[in-house]
UniProtKB/TrEMBL annotation, chain A:
Membrane topology: Multi-pass membrane protein
InterPro entries in the record: ABC_transp_permease, BCAA_transport_permease
Protein's name according to its UniProt entry: Amino acid/amide ABC transporter membrane protein 1 (HAAT family)
One GO molecular-function entry: transmembrane transporter activity
Cell membrane recorded as keyword: yes
Automatic annotation (TrEMBL), chain B:
Any Pfam family hit: BPD_transp_2
Lineage, highest ranks first: Bacteria, Bacillati, Actinomycetota, Actinomycetes, Micrococcales
Molecular function per GO: ATP binding; ATP hydrolysis activity; branched-chain amino acid transmembrane transporter activity
UniProt organism field: Microcella alkaliphila
Keyword Hydrolase (UniProt): no
The entry's keywords: ATP-binding, Cell membrane, Membrane, Nucleotide-binding, Transmembrane, Transmembrane helix, Transport
CDD domains associated with the record: ABC_Mj1267_LivG_branched, TM_PBP1_LivM_like
Stretches that traverse the bilayer: 17-37, 43-61, 73-90, 96-118, 125-145, 165-188, 219-239, 295-316
GO CC annotation terms, alphabetical: plasma membrane
Classification via SMART domains: AAA (SM00382)
Domain ABC transporter: start-end pairs: 362-601
Protein name listed in UniProt: Amino acid/amide ABC transporter membrane protein 2 (HAAT family) /amino acid/amide ABC transporter ATP-binding protein 1 (HAAT family)
Compartments, record wording: Cell membrane
Annotated PANTHER family: CONSERVED COMPONENT OF ABC TRANSPORTER FOR NATURAL AMINO ACIDS (PTHR45772:SF9), CONSERVED COMPONENT OF ABC TRANSPORTER FOR NATURAL AMINO ACIDS-RELATED (PTHR45772)
From TrEMBL, chain C:
Leucine-binding protein domain sequence ranges: 36-382
Protein name: Amino acid/amide ABC transporter substrate-binding protein (HAAT family)
One Pfam family per UniProt: Peripla_BP_6
Classification via InterPro entries: BCAA_transport, Leu-bd, Peripla_BP_I
Keywords, sorted A to Z: Signal
Signal peptide residue numbers: 1-26
Similarity field: Belongs to the leucine-binding protein family.
């Protein structure tokens, strides 16, 4: 029972960070119908940037978050304008290829800049825990989960209470309608992409604090993030949070009770099964081109 | 004119001769390559052949059928593993012997993946293929008793003398596999099977409605796409002398194969092969002279982005387009003109509307369909009398097109019965209904845009048999019949034009000819007069009447009231998903319920009739 | 050497006309003896195994530098061509083919990791070139009947933890742990180490309370460690590569789990990187198996340390030393045979002789696998010491993890 509770604690804490990282992916899909396969690579990039700030200036990874978010916002904007935008007219599977290409380029760039060795950030709280009775809460995970909640709430507020949020939602529901009421869909798309990458940046910074980073791990991340939004429903923010919790807890349960090899398969199995059995996920709509039958 | 035509025929013959000559020389170079290259070039050639086989296979589902897959590399690995596993228990048998087993295993697993396309396409299918690749890798890692886990399985060294034979056996086997693979691709493109696949790529829903049994087509396509790459996988593993989960199921292999297809040209016969022969040396070059690993990622990632953005069609189609442009510079294409339509005299308009029989060819009872909270069709009941031209009218959003989709099988009803000629059909797939005699057109025409007009018209299938898959795509009596129908609708002058290049009205006529090939008992037309010019509306009316005289039953959805009232009897009026009135045009016009339904939805009856009236005035 | 193109053309012609029996022989080596000896190797400088690949590259480079300073091999200078295979098997095969036929190298050195060396050694074998590999501990490599492959460490993976396990098994009852956990990376190099140890320890009556294999993609060990902590294991024997070992220790800290004895197979051999990764306190008392110790007094080690410090700074990691040793084996063979053209003679010599290296004395079985024992090391007060076997030990005392010494 103690082991089970401990596993659930770890799963939920991991899930919070997953949720933050997946929020950008689902937002970008919701507005643009672009599945950003490079999302995992952007996360690792943010982690490496955090690592550099920490190793060069001793900047605490959590304090670096605002700065990383700004930088990632800029990078997201540039990548969108430079590459993603040009593929929007073509078939959805083509945009998948473009973002997959971006992921490979990012992996290569990170390898060149930071090398292919693993980099890890160690601060006084990264290896410590808060102990409550028989349970332990890793400090860094607690902090990361708290920050994830804060950023997610901010994102929710941005989307639901501001003009920009209304414009984004308008563009996601009806592109020509949004144009009609004076929303520049092109600008909103670029902004959404950049915002999605910026929130991911916050998650990436914490990723750097939680575990060692290697450029090649982005496949694992994109698999996990895709599984989350497939499960939660493409384009749904609450769905992403629920999906993230499910994935986080399932991975931990699989490690403890099935075997530590299984977490690798969990995201792929979920993608495979959900897309076949219930393509709309828990809370989302089906992709338009799924509506064949 | 005829001089020019003769010259162009001559030109074409000459360029074909040149092309075949060049191809023959290239083929010879590939076959005899080990005589020319050193060991490292040979090695690059072997990898290029392997990837070319992979790309040529993937082309069948990605190029022809339109399903982009990032799991082709998995089938290479599966082929290698099958040979490695069998070879482990029977070490004295040459691994080449296992090639057919490996190919079939890969094909069967690919068909399993193909089943997924029943539920998913587009982007979610791409994601599924990525998941499939990683799951296969996972199985190879975890199924230790069979696959030996991460440690992998080693092959024996080749038994032939390296000094004497070098890589010849590997090379020649691969050349043979590539030749077979290209041959199969070539054959597919020329048969009904290929036309069906392209129809699925262009518009899967439409393909079903003209009688193409998409699942079987797709399953066969997936199987064939992996057959040769599975066999090549055996050679690959034997050549590398080792299989393990990381190397065999690297996603970069799949990326290179997909890139090869896009670079060379999706859907072309030799494009994927060309792509592979360009990319593999680029890979070797990037690795040897640009610094390897990270640079390779930059090169392939960058290529992927650039290709999709700048050269989405690929080399071969782009070059063909340029050549085509140069050749046709100054000549006038067949576009826009409708003069040809006047060639055939129209039957005189009938004074009396067709008599309506008592037997119902189609009977719909209690049909229901909801989208979320919206009840689009809500207990719809009506019949279509045999030999009639029945109209289904109603205000916008009343559910007419949904009813059409339910009858033709594009959607499944939540409840209700559909009986065609005494047989319940609501449980049948679209192609099954097409085979039983329902032919339909679409409100916005849905021709297979990349096919020619003639190919469009021969694409429909009246039944499904395996042997029919191998028949020539455009051949024999069928082609004759197709040409007859084209002539009937007045479009024979356009038989070789690309369907997508026709005007909207012309497309409507071709779509009509297309479903006539099904020899349907019931022809369902969704707004046959919508959005086309008055002359064509008149023409369309004439064709419908003529076909009706020949015994065809019609069900029409139409907004153009004069058109409906002048052509149809009986008329069914649909509002909020239910039939609220039925009867002859005269009865309907007087029915207060009908007026209510239209006015209640702010429907401008006058406006619509105004359009039609203009048409009527000009036409008669 | 590779058959020349002319030979192959001749062979083909002969074959096609059914005239069996080709007498053509490779005609080669026209250069003067002053030309440098070119040595070729492919290493995973990028991708999954880049950590070890980069370290091995350093070892090769130090060896080339020192060999040339000492007058080269047989009086000829040595050059090394290193290609990156990006941890990719296609590429490693391409690379060795290129090295042999384009760069026309005289000698080969191996790649890093068994996964890459298995296909790479097949290329060498087909071309009948000696293949000394610094890192190919998978036993599978040596049951293929190859004649040209040699592993330049002391033992294959299954035997790497033997000395350690036998020592634990021989501890007095009151000091011996009663339960053990065996987490291991899913890797042909790490798994067998743990299996070998478990066989010995469970035979000695130490109960296995946890055993699991985690994949290379595992980054967060919190739940694995939580499960091991719940099992109450007094000893942990982990088959670790590098970062998984570091992460595991960090997770143990977070979980507040402290077994008496901690053994990690490879991670702790990564010197400074391991030290930085887990922090000094946590290194205290960690056991590991190693082929190399920087404090050992093996022949040439002092010079190696000095040269490494000069070229790259710091203390060399194990993979660098292994790379260096592979070069030493190749050099010893070339000088003993007195030439480099007869690769079969080189292979026969290595099989029949012992070579003194910075790892100690190496010798080989018929199949090219080494017949020796790994050293057992332990981190003590911030540096890696050798504690077993006694004759090679650099430290007399042996500690528990972050705890007291054994009696």
């Amino acid at each position: 029972m103690i082991a089970l509770t401990q596993t659930l604690i770890l799963g939920v804490l991991a899930g919070a960070v997953y949720a933050l990282m997946a929020s950008g992916l689902t937002l970008i899909f919701g507005v643009m119908r672009v599945i950003n396969i490079a999302h995992g690579a952007f996360a690792v990039l943010a982690a490496f940037l955090t690592y550099s700030l920490w190793s060069a200036f001793g900047l605490d990874p959590l304090l670096a978050i605002p700065f990383i978010m700004v930088v990632m916002f800029g990078i997201g904007w540039v990548v969108y304008q430079g590459a993603v935008r040009h593929s929007r007219g073509s078939h959805v599977s083509m945009t998948v290829l473009v973002t997959f290409g971006i992921a490979l380029v990012l992996e290569g760039v990170m390898g060149i800049i930071w090398g292919n060795r693993s980099a890890s950030i160690r601060t006084d709280y990264t290896d410590a825990s808060v102990e409550v009775g028989p349970f332990f809460f890793p400090q860094v995970q607690l902090l990361a989960a708290a920050i994830a909640v804060v950023v997610l709430i901010a994102l929710y507020f941005l989307l639901n209470k501001t003009w920009l949020g209304r414009a984004i939602r308008a563009a996601s529901v009806n592109e020509s309608g949004a144009l009609l009421v004076g929303v520049s869909v092109a600008a909103v798309a670029a902004l959404t992409f950049a915002i999605g990458i910026a929130t991911l940046g916050a998650g990436g910074a914490m990723l750097g604090a939680i575990q060692p980073i290697v450029p090649g791990t982005h496949y694992q991340w994109i698999a996990r993030l895709l599984a989350i939004i497939v499960l939660g429903g493409f384009g749904s923010l609450p769905g992403a949070v629920i999906g993230a919790m499910i994935i986080g807890v399932t991975e931990m349960l699989a490690t403890t009770y099935v075997g530590s090899a299984w977490p690798v398969a969990v995201p792929f199995l979920i993608i495979f099964i959900v897309l076949i059995v219930r393509p709309q996920g828990i809370m989302g709509a089906r992709l338009r081109e799924d509506l064949v039958s | 004119m005829s001089d020019a035509a003769a010259k162009s025929v001559q030109d074409e013959r000459r360029s074909r001769l040149i092309r075949n000559g060049v191809l023959a020389v290239l083929a010879l170079i590939v076959v005899l390559f080990p005589l020319i290259g050193d060991a490292s070039m040979e090695n690059t050639m072997i990898l290029a052949l392997i990837f070319a086989i992979g790309a040529s296979g993937l082309n069948i589902i990605t190029g022809y059928t339109g399903y982009l897959s990032l799991s082709q590399g998995a089938f290479l690995g599966i082929g290698a593993y099958v040979a490695a596993i069998l070879g482990r228990s029977m070490p004295d048998i040459s691994p080449f012997v296992w090639m057919p087993v490996a190919g079939l295993t890969a094909a069967l697993l690919a068909m399993l993946l193909g089943l997924v396309t029943y539920r998913s396409r587009g982007a979610s299918f791409v994601i599924i293929t990525i998941a499939f690749l990683f799951l296969v890798q996972f199985v190879a890692t975890q199924w230790v008793p069979v696959t030996n886990g991460t440690a992998g399985i080693t092959f024996p060294l080749p038994t032939w003398s390296n000094a004497v034979w070098g890589n010849w056996p590997f090379h020649l086997v691969l050349v043979g596999l590539l030749a077979l693979s290209i041959l199969v691709s070539w054959w597919i493109r020329r048969t009904k099977f290929g036309t069906g696949l392209i129809a699925i790529r262009e518009d899967e829903g439409k393909a079903g409605s003209v009688g193409i049994n998409a699942p079987i087509y797709k399953l066969l396509a997936f199987g064939l796409s992996a057959l040769f790459v599975g066999m090549a996988g055996t050679v690959y593993g034997y050549y590398l002398s080792f299989v393990d989960p990381i190397g065999m199921f690297s996603i970069l292999n799949s990326v290179i194969i997909v890139l090869a297809i896009i670079l060379g040209g999706r859907g072309t016969l030799l494009g994927p092969v060309l792509g592979a022969f360009i990319l593999v040396p680029v890979d070797a070059f990037a690795n040897n002279y640009l610094g390897g690993g990270n640079i390779r990622l930059l090169v392939f990632g960058g290529l992927l982005v650039l290709l999709v953005v700048l050269l989405p069609k690929g080399i071969i189609p782009t070059v063909q387009l340029l050549l085509e442009k140069r050749r046709t510079k100054g000549t006038v294409g067949l576009t826009g003109s409708i003069t040809a339509l006047a060639d055939r005299p129209l039957p005189p308009p009938r004074e009396k509307l067709a008599p309506v029989g008592d037997t119902m060819l189609l009977q719909v009872t209690g049909l229901e369909k909801s989208f979320g909270a919206l009840k689009a069709v809500d207990g719809c009941t009506f019949g279509v009398p045999e030999g009639s031209i029945t109209a289904l009218i109603g205000p916008n959003g009343s559910g007419k097109t949904t009813v059409f989709n339910l009858i033709s099988g594009l959607m499944t009803p939540d409840a209700g019965e559909i009986v065609l000629d005494g047989e319940r059909i609501e449980g049948l797939a679209p192609w099954g209904r097409a085979h039983r005699g329902i032919g339909r057109t679409f409100q916005m025409t849905r021709l297979f845009r990349e096919m020619t007009v003639l190919e469009n018209v021969v694409a429909p299938l009246r039944d499904f048999q395996f042997r029919q898959l191998g028949l020539g795509a455009v051949s024999g009596s069928e082609a004759e019949k197709a040409e007859e129908f084209l002539e009937f609708v007045g479009m024979q002058a356009y038989r070789d034009a690309r369907a997508g290049s026709l005007s909207y009205g012309q497309q409507k006529l071709v779509e009509l000819a297309q479903i006539l090939v099904l020899d349907p008992k019931l022809i369902m037309l969704d707004e046959p007069a919508g959005g086309i010019n008055p002359t064509l509306i008149e023409r369309m009316g004439g064709l419908i009447r003529e076909l009706n005289d020949q015994g065809k039953t019609f069900l029409l959805v139409e907004h153009n009231m004069p058109f409906v009232l002048g052509l149809c009897n009986p008329v069914r009026v649909l509002a909020r998903g239910q039939v609220i009135a039925e009867g002859s045009p005269a009865e309907i016009q007087k029915d207060p319920l009908v007026l209510d339904a239209y006015l209640g939805d702010d429907y401008m009856l006058e406006n619509r009739s105004g359009d039609g009236a203009a048409a009527k005035g000009e036409g008669r | 050497m590779a058959a020349s193109r002319a030979t192959r053309i001749a062979a083909l012609t002969a074959g096609l006309s059914l005239l069996v029996g080709v007498s053509a022989c490779a005609t080669d080596s026209g250069g003067t003896t002053d030309d440098p000896i070119v040595i070729g190797a492919s290493l995973p400088l990028t991708g999954e195994f880049s950590q070890g690949g980069l370290d091995t590259q350093q070892g090769y480079e130090v060896w080339v530098e020192m060999t040339n300073e000492a007058g080269g091999i047989l009086g000829r200078d040595v050059e090394i061509v290193i290609r990156d295979d990006a941890t990719n098997q296609n590429t490693v095969v391409t690379n060795y083919n290129n090295l042999i036929s384009v760069d026309d190298v005289d000698l080969l050195l191996g790649s890093q990791s068994s996964l890459l060396n298995i296909p790479a050694s097949a290329v060498a074998e087909r071309n009948e070139m000696v293949f000394v590999c610094p890192s190919c501990g998978s036993p599978d490599m040596f049951n293929r009947g190859f004649e040209f492959i040699f592993f330049s460490q002391q033992a294959v993976a299954t035997d790497q933890a033997r000395v350690f396990a036998e020592w634990i098994a021989a501890l007095p009852e009151d000091q011996r742990p009663k339960t053990a956990a065996y987490p291991s990376l899913d890797d042909p190099f790490a798994g067998p180490v743990v299996d070998g140890a478990e066989a010995i320890l469970s035979a000695a009556g130490i109960e296995t309370v946890y055993k699991d294999i985690y994949p290379a993609t595992t980054k967060n060990f919190d739940s694995i460690v939580a499960a091991i902590a719940a099992s109450g294991a007094e000893m942990v024997v982990q088959g670790a590569q590098f970062e998984d070992g570091v992460n595991f220790v960090r997770s143990m800290n977070r979980a507040g789990y402290e077994p008496d004895i901690l053994y990690q197979s490879s991670s702790p051999t990564y010197g400074q990187q391991y030290f930085d990764g887990v922090g000094e306190d946590n290194t205290q008392g960690v056991f590991f198996s190693t082929s190399y110790s920087s404090v050992a007094s093996t022949p040439g080690n002092a010079e190696f340390l000095a040269k490494y410090e000069e070229m790259f700074g710091g203390i060399p990691p194990e993979d660098a030393a292994d790379g260096f040793a592979a070069g030493e084996v190749l050099k010893a063979a070339a000088e003993a045979v007195g030439g480099i053209d007869d690769q079969r003679a080189l292979a026969d010599w290595i099989r029949a002789n012992e070579v003194q290296t910075i790892l100690g004395t190496l010798s080989w079985n018929e199949n090219g696998s080494p017949k020796g024992d790994f050293l057992v090391g332990q981190w003590q007060d911030g540096s890696a010491q050798i504690v077993l076997p006694a004759e090679a030990a650099t430290s007399e005392t042996i500690f528990r993890w972050r705890g007291a010494a054994f009696e």
